[in-house]
Structure formats: structure tokens, C-alpha cells
Amino acid sequence: MTSRRRPLAWAVALLLSAGCSTYQPFDSVGYLRGQYTARLGAARAAAIVVPFALDDAVRAAVDREVPRTPDEDLRITEVLDFIFHRLDLRYAMSPTRDAVSTFESRHGNCLSFVNLFVGVARERQLNPFYVEVTDLQKWNRRENTVISQGHIVAGLYVNGRLATYDFLPYRPKSYKTFKPIDDLTAAAHYYNNLGAEALLEGEVDKAQSLVEIATEIAPAFDKGLNNLGVCYARRGQLDRALEVYERALRASPGNTLILTNQARAYQQLGRGGEAKTILAKIEGENTTNPYFFVYEGEVALADGDTAKALDYMARALRLDTELPEVHLGFVKVYLALGDTDKARHHLERALKLDASNVEAKKLAHMLGR
To answer: What pTM was estimated for this model as a whole?
Structure first.
């Protein structure tokens, strides 16, 4: 369904899959709270948000705006029309919101949208669930460590096929691999997102408390464990960071993002041999993580090998042209080569992508921009 008045289009992908769409009444909010209690204890669990829970105001709006109908396809259409047309929901990269705050603010990112969609769709006797897109990962880099977030869409089985509903604008929807996840893992993603956002703002204490919730409710959640390791690394507790990275690698063996952070921690501890062994292993995996190549380029630059550094930056650029850190890597290499014109070119590009980037501002000051 499309509408000129709708600010963003929702995308639907149909995949062959076994499944059933028969509705069975189930208190998913109460069940998830029970899982929280089992893992955290009653006192702590009471303070943990159920991301898809609705309040009375949202339920009242759903009752007014979303007609009840026995036709499942029509119910799905009505739910999407309510969210995108009647609420006029707008995309905002951050913060990640739960269903109620997404409804109240009329703004949200991908996971915010899914939280609201799941809550409203279940209110209308549909069986939506969270789906992780495994061939699209979101990475950010600060202070030489890589922060990880997953990309989540909503899923429904419709006539035996998995339909996915997305809210990521301005990007082709060419996903190939999907992994349905349970509500507990989805809640871990929610708290990990909040923790990652806090890390990007430099709020390490807040980030660690949020990421710890994610890893306590889902102890094998690799993205949460990676970000918890980053929190320890930011505090200078590199041995603790390495312990957490090892836990993360047991959950996700060969994960190049975690390995990159692990190598960085070894390097900071003066254990360069172990760092180089890990880096060689990552390169052999044909990684698609551009931050790995930026990091390798910086290592090569520190060793005085500018040709190798430039090659690594070029490989990072081929993977993602829109990361300011990639362009800043080029700035450093070209400055080492004495080519200030090319350094300025990449600096301008980095600042256009992120005018608030602290490293870019420092380099701009140095170059007298």
C-alpha cells in the first residue's frame, strides 16, 4: 500500500517459509516479564521495559482508528495505515524508543517502529514477531573500538509465507537472510541499542548499565557482549574487556567485529604479537567490516608502511563510502605522504558526513581549515 500523504514507505519482502497465521490469545507482555524475573529477580525486573507493551492511551487510539475485521490481510493493512498514515510516523535515527514513546513522539528508528508495530498488531489479534536481518549490520566506531547494533524488522506469517515490514528509509531493501528472534532477544536488542547510543554520546556509565541489562537477559547475545567489552575498554579495564570479548566469541565464533576490538585491546596492552595474529585471521575471512580495514590501515601507518595503509583505506572505501572514519583514515595517510590537497578533499567529505566528528574537527584545525 502506498500513499502520497505517508512520509515513508513501508517495505514488504515475501519469503517462502513454513508457518501458520492462526491467532492464539497469549499474554506476551506478562510472559516476557516472567522471563525478566527469572533472570534478574523480581525487584530489578520490575524496572525493565517491555518494548512492545502498550498503555491505555495507545489501546484507546487503536480501538478508535483500527477497525476489527476477520480478514487477516485487511487487519495488517489497517495496522500499517494507522502507524504510517494516521499517526504520520517519521523516521529519526535516535533515540531508540519503546512502543508507547514512539506513539507519543510520532518519531522512531527501525526498532522503534517494530516495537510499535508488534504491540499494535498483537492488539488486533495478529501474531507478529521480531526478525533480525543478518546480512545488514550497523557499526559505529569511536575511540578505535567498534560498537555493534543489529537491524530488526517486523515479521508475520501470511498464507504460509514470511512477510517482513521495514522502516529503514533511503536504502534499497535487498536483504537476503532473516532470523526470527524471540521477545527476550528483541528486548536485549532494545537495551543494546540504547547502550550503543549512549556510547556514541560518550556516556560510558549510562551505556554500561544499559548493555549489562541486555547481556543479563540474553547472556549469549554477541552484540551486547561486544559493547560491554567496549565499555570496559573505554574505562581502561582492558583485561576485563578481553574476558568479555572471549565470551562474545564463544557465542559468535569468528565474528570479525569482536575480533577487531580484541586485537585493539591486545595492542593497547603491548601484546602486539597476539594482535597481529588476530588481524591476520580476520583478513583471511574476507571481512565485510570497513572498520577493520581502517584499523589495519592505521596499524600499517604506525609501522611506516604508507603504501599498505593506503591499500587498506581503499578497501574500506569500497565497502562503505559514507563512513566519515574511512575518509579520516585517508586524511592521515595523505598527510603522511605529504599530499595535503587529497587530505583536504577527504577531510571535507568526512565533515559533510558528520560535522560534529571530534577527530575531523582536530584535523581541520591542524590543516587551518
So the answer is: 0.76
